[in-house]
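Q: I have 135 residues here and want to know how they pack in 3D. Can you give me a structure?
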Amino acid sequence: MYQQMFFVNLAADDLEASKKFFTGLGYALDDRFSDDTTASIPLSDSVTLMLHTHRKYGEFTKKKIVDSTTSSEVLLALSASSREAVDELVDRAVAAGGSVTGETQDHGFMYGRAFDDVDGHTWEVMWMDPAAAQS
């Protein structure tokens, strides 16, 4: 069966700072698809983050590029394997220069926290009890 891929394209105010932030979270840069205007960062086998300078991002759209530090254009969500993995990723994000945003969500069977990356994009990290997801 065909495995569809998903590419998340985001504008970065400072591409080098953004690359440092995401590699600080433990992700690797894919040099094959990266240059001085774009950073390709695989998040999984089927999801790749594409960070672009504003100039490069502007080649893909005629719309105004929002200031993601003051406006929200998208909420990005990542799953985690455990509650501890949620905390570990958010803690690494803060250590790499991001900031915690919103309140911790703890519903027993589901746990989540969120952070803003160095460009202001909001990332939610959540864990859900697999048994609860099946019922």
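Q: Anything worth noting?
A: The chain has four helices and seven strands. The first strand starts at residue 6 and ends at 12.
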